[in-house]
Design goal:
The chain is α/β, with parallel strands linked by helices. The protein is built from twelve helices and 22 strands. Strand 12 and strand 13 form a beta hairpin. The longest helix is centred in the N-terminal third of the chain and has 25 residues. The chain starts with a strand and ends in a 7-residue tail after the last helix. The protein binds flavin-adenine dinucleotide.
Length: about 475
């Protein structure tokens, strides 16, 4: 039987890899998707975006019930959380979408292979080979498979970093363990105030745990605009989340029932805190060891792979997408768009490279954060003269209806031509509202363009209109 040579083989079935596979199928490419786990979806679907957002929605509903009286609803003042049911609902959502991916692979005629993929080296006669280690493969239980393809896309993703000397277990948690706890912890320490850390802090605080956040850098969500960080600190403190920035974690020890953390906050006075669990959310390391890079021209930097704008690596025919790519934010929508760009290049279809300034950053804690483009500080560092507009949700009528008054929309615009350089939202539905700003920036819109774009009333989106108005000091509602 003639050997199959695929147009493209993809190693890794997370959002980067599965999106690339679907698009490759749509373009009529003979496609093979190799995934080591027994299910597609990667970090995002199984231990990332989807389960966290499911829990965040539970937290939101629970908070609404706690505040029911304010909305004139009585009899539900002391809602009780059924943790098993919460977990079940989350798992059901994940299972549904896992099945959905299997369906999409069949629909788009993608061959899926379960096993651990590793490049064997450069292409021979234009054909690359991926050795796939199947369960027990290479030994007793069976032969390894060799997948041959004209192009290979590496999409192996990332995993949580640990603090030195610690290992994840039932008390020291990463994003994996914390998503399937048997019972709700009464107290939780979160190390790291990036997106993952603050989302879990928000979830477990809503579920009534005592939560402490320890962050080494001088502010919460350190990649966001400074004013957003300040507002989050204020909102979290109000909710009873103890936040320590500029803080060094010295030691984590196991106690009889939990953990003890020794840390030094900004004032230099060492403290010790006991809690039931600790979440380590200090970033994610790319999974690029042991995938055969040493036999290629690809030289990873701190584990990350350098690509050009079409996601091509230094090795002809080999592309990299998703969390393993150097200098790009580790986000599902970045990986999936990179997959689409790489496949377009392979299929000689039109495509547009990703512009890092056009990538939305969303953090789904309460209050939510959505941002795109340059922060005020970054714009100034880049030598831009800027005008700033800022509009508080407190002055937006839909926010009053929702009882969600915290936060604001901040616009950074070019002082000379009014081009929108950045938009930073903290407040209700920030992760949805940011899409308008992403589209505006993608289309090189000015603040004036949006000032004359009609926004429906009453909506949260009107806060965007007024934030644009406020760039010129003419907000209608404040
Ligand atoms: C708690 C948490 C919440 C998050 N929330 C969001 C969010 O709300 N929005 C957002 O945009 N991003 C979010 N992220 C980030 C997002 O999950 C990642 O950016 C995204 O999953 C990266 O996609 P990927 O395809 O590069 O890799 P992954 O999703 O990590 O998938 C890689 C896949 O490759 C497989 N694999 C690895 N090595 C091999 C091999 N050698 N052979 C075969 N298969 C292999 C893995 O098993 C895995 O299935 C979150 C992350 C975490 C941890």
């Amino acid at each position: 039987m003639a050997e199959t040579i695929y147009d493209v083989a993809i190693i890794g079935g997370g959002p980067g890899g599965y999106t690339a596979a679907i698009r490759a199928g749509q373009w009529g490419l003979k496609t093979c998707l190799i995934e080591k786990d027994d299910k597609l979806g990667g970090t995002c679907l199984h231990v990332g975006c989807i389960p966290t957002k499911a829990l965040l929605f539970n937290a939101e509903v629970y908070e609404h019930l706690k505040a029911a009286k304010e909305f004139g609803i009585e009899g539900v003042e002391t809602p009780k959380l059924n943790w098993a049911a919460v977990q079940q609902r989350k798992n059901k959502i994940v299972t549904k979408h896992t099945k959905g991916l299997d369906f999409l692979m069949r629909k788009n005629k993608v061959t899926t292979v379960q096993g651990y993929g590793r490049l064997t080296g450069p292409a021979k006669d234009g054909v690359l080979t991926v050795e796939v280690f199947t369960e027990g493969g290479g030994g007793a239980a069976g032969e390894n498979t060799f997948v041959k393809a004209k192009n290979v896309i590496l999409a192996t993703g990332s995993e949580a970093k640990m603090l030195p000397g610690l290992e994840a277990d039932s008390r020291v948690l990463t994003n994996i363990e914390i998503l399937s706890l048997n019972a709700l912890p009464k107290s939780l320490v979160v190390v790291g105030a990036g997106a993952v850390g603050v989302e879990f802090a928000s979830i477990y605080r809503s579920f009534d745990a005592e939560v402490t956040v320890l962050e080494a850098l001088p502010r919460m969500v350190p990649l966001e605009d400074e004013e957003v960080s300040k507002e989050l600190l204020r909102a979290f403190t109000k909710k009873g989340i103890a936040c320590h920035v500029n803080t060094k974690v010295e030691k984590v020890e196991k106690t009889k029932t939990g953990i003890a953390v020794t840390f030094t906050p900004a004032d230099g006075k060492q403290q010790k805190l006991e809690a039931e669990k600790i979440l380590i959310a200090v970033g994610r390391a790319p999974r690029t060891d042991n995938i055969g890079l040493e036999k290629t021209k690809i030289k990873p930097e701190r584990g990350f792979i350098k690509t050009n704008e079409w996601m091509q690596t230094g090795e002809p025919g080999v592309y990299a997408i998703g969390d393993i790519v150097l200098g790009m934010p580790q986000l599902a929508h970045v990986g999936s768009m990179q997959g689409i760009v790489a496949v377009a290049k392979i299929a000689s279809k039109p495509a547009k490279p990703l512009n890092p300034q056009h990538i939305p950053n969303c953090t789904y804690c309460e209050p939510q954060i959505g941002s795109v483009g340059l922060s005020e500080a970054k714009a100034k560092e880049a030598g831009r003269k800027v005008n700033i507009g800022k509009f508080p949700f407190a002055a937006n009528s839909k926010a009053s209806i929702l009882g969600a008054h915290e936060g604001f929309i901040k616009v950074v615009s070019d002082a000379q031509y009014g081009e929108i350089l950045g938009v930073h939202i903290i407040g209700p539905s920030a992760t949805e509202l940011i899409s308008e700003a992403v589209a505006a920036i993608e289309l090189e819109a000015t603040a004036e363009d949006l000032m004359f774009t009609i926004h429906a009333h009453p909506t949260l989106a009107e806060a965007m209109l007024d934030a644009m108005n406020s760039v010129y000091g003419v907000a209608i509602n404040a």
